[in-house]
Amino acid sequence: MAKRFKTQNEIDAFLETPRLAMLLYNGPHPAPTGVPVWFDWDGKRLRMFAGRTSPKVARLKEDPHASVLVTNQVREPEGWVAFDGLITISDFEAEDWQSLIDRVAPRYWDLSDPGYKQEIEGWRASPESFVSLELEQMTIRSGA
To answer: Is 80 exceeded by the pLDDT of residue 144?
Structure first.
């Protein structure tokens, strides 16, 4: 089978499509822990966010090594992109939080739904409840 991604532009186009990513990190058990996350890729940096008091944030503070795996959707040609590196955890400035949530929320939720809209409005109003997770010192792999 031919490799799906032949150029960086093809990888970027793949990552622009709404997809869940799996954040894989060293959890409390002998095996790695994986959780789905929303992500934002701007062609240079991979950003996610998490609740400030979430277990993943506590674990990543102890060991910042992580991988983020983004895969094809069902019935889509096989393909995946993986990012490996160190997670940097930082606070959001209110403006940065607004900008990030405005970009990613419509990718994942139908904001015409009143329940989703209300949830996002609550998030927008409380940037201090969240932290930025940025993958740095990345190796980018792709396949299928």
So the answer is: no
Give the pair of three-digit tokens for residue 132: 């930025």
The answer to whether the beta carbons of residues 59 and 26 sit under 8 Å apart is: yes
| DSSP H or E segment with residue 68 | strand 65-71
CA distance 60 to 72: 26
Assign domain 8-92+129-143 to a CATH class.
mainly beta
Q: Which strands, in side-by-side order, build the sheet including 130-143?
A: 33-37, 21-25, 65-71, 80-91, 130-143, 46-51, 40-41
- pLDDT greater than 90 at residue 5: no
Cβ proximity of 66 and 57 under 8 Å:
no
What count of other Cβ atoms lies within 10 Å of the Cβ of residue 14?
A: 21
Q: Where are the domains of the chain?
A: 8-92+129-143
* Cα–Cα nearest to 25, from 54, 81, 63: 63
